[in-house]
């Protein structure tokens, strides 16, 4: 029963990674500069604003804590998309090669 649950979870992760790859491929196939660069630009913007708020806090300038928390959550979400998604793709690739090699 546990093996079936793990298998279903791996299949769901595999499908998610494939959909992510399809979205990225569609963005890269576009002729629009903006569609190719909107995700990296968003990450850079979030990190710059978050760093600015951190610097302001270090200089005892009052910053609304809700904004800092929100930007931190967005930053974690965006970074996990970039770095976590790519890692997941590599893991799934390695597992599929291993299974096909058996």
Structure explained in plain terms:
- With 102 residues, the chain is mostly helical.
- The chain has one domain (2-101).
- It has three helices and no strands.
- The protein has helices at 2-29, 33-58, 65-101.
- The chain is flat, with a radius of gyration of 19 Å.
Helix content bin: over 70%
Number of domains: 1
Question: What gross morphology would you assign?
Answer: flat
Strand content: under 5%
Structural class: mainly alpha
| End-to-end Cα distance | 24 Å
pLDDT averaged over residues: 78
Order of helices and strands: HHH
Condensed summary:
The chain has 102 residues and is mainly alpha-helical. The protein is 89% helix and 0% strand.
Q: Which helices and strands, and how do they pair?
A:
Blueprint: H1 2-29, H2 33-58, H3 65-101
Helix pairs in contact: 1-3, 2-3
Write a concise keyword list for the protein shown above:
102 residues; mainly alpha; flat; 89% helix; 0% strand
């Amino acid at each position: 029963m546990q093996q079936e649950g793990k298998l279903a979870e791996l299949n769901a992760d595999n499908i998610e990674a494939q959909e992510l790859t399809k979205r990225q491929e569609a963005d890269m196939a576009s002729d629009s500069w903006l569609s190719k660069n909107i995700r990296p630009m968003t990450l850079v913007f979030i990190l710059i604003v978050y760093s600015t708020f951190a610097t302001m806090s270090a200089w005892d300038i009052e910053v609304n804590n809700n904004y800092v928390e929100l930007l931190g959550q967005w930053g974690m979400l965006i970074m996990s998309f970039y770095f976590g998604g790519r890692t997941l793709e590599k893991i799934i690739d390695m597992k599929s090669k291993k299974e096909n090699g058996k």
